[in-house]
Amino acid sequence: MEDYYLGWIEQIERALSKWGCCRVEGRPRMVVVTGMGGSGCVGDYLYTIASTRDYGLPVTVVKSHRLPGFIGSGDLVFTISYSGNTLETRLAYMEALRRGCRVVVVTSNGYLERDAREKGLPCITVVKGIAPRTALPEMLLAVLNVLDTSGLTLVSRKEIEKLRKFLKDSMGRAYNEAVEIAEYIHENPGVLVIATHTPYEVLAIRGKNEFNENSKIPVKTDVAPEWAHNDIVGWEKPYTREWTVLEIIDPSDPVGTRLVDFMEEIYRGNGYPVKKLLLKGENILEKLVYGSLVLGLASVKLARLRGIDPLETRNIARYKEVVHTILEKP
Ligand code: F6R
User: Fold this and answer.
1) 27: CA distance to ligand 1 center in Å?
2) Count of domains for the chain
3) 107 and 193 co-located in one domain
4) pLDDT digits over 209-242, tens only?
């Protein structure tokens, strides 16, 4: 499974080779990204990049079978599902088509690929046969590709070429940092808390999902400054004292750094161990990808230290066997 993460450079290269393949006409009112789990992360990342770059279009993320009522025919909807079969994503896709939205599909296979091809919708297929969560860069870049090709550029092709070089140069460092984080968590086996500052809440969520799925542990996320208005009080009298903190910090953000320094005083005051992950990269995309790579590899390494198979997600499979009886029963 480590190889899937180490293959992110090839994913970027494949995405670059498809640049310009798909476009949509006109200027939408809003960009919507729907998807669940590892595929749903694409929407989070798109939202974060757009909101830190003053992108001219609003971006909405939908991780549900329900499409919010305010989404309509003027909107551009990206439907992301690695397998192409996730029921929640299929239901949101059908509803978007029913409402007359422009719909683009990003998938590797399955119902969504077949249906998009039959309907002649723009559809980008990504590498087949890996774990959905590890296909994050190729799925994200597919969306950035369509936006750029359609004259709605959020990230240019040039920036993606730079990202490729950055990742190539950073792979060794990311790997070593991941091993250190895995060993730290394994030696301090409290409930893992991933603490960060805005706009990196999406990275904390991504990290949570990675440690959930690969290492099979529950994780809490703490995000400042909102943390200082609720979680901080919860830290006054927790039921258990066994917590292990991993901080994610953008060292080029002085306010973010000071916020997390303040969080650390509370954690250390409670006697919890703390480790920092300092994000590398020159822009938000590079920082998100670097952080995701370290967290992904660390969660796989932690699974190895625990003697657990990182790839298997038994309880997700169990849910997917019955999800139609939960969502589609009248
Ligand atoms: C598994 C994983 C899951 C899936 C989710 C949705 O690797 O990451 O979180 O992404 O169950 O499935 P897909 O991505 O196929 O739509």
Assistant:
1) 30
2) 2
3) no
4) 999 999 999 999 999 999 999 999 999 999 999 9
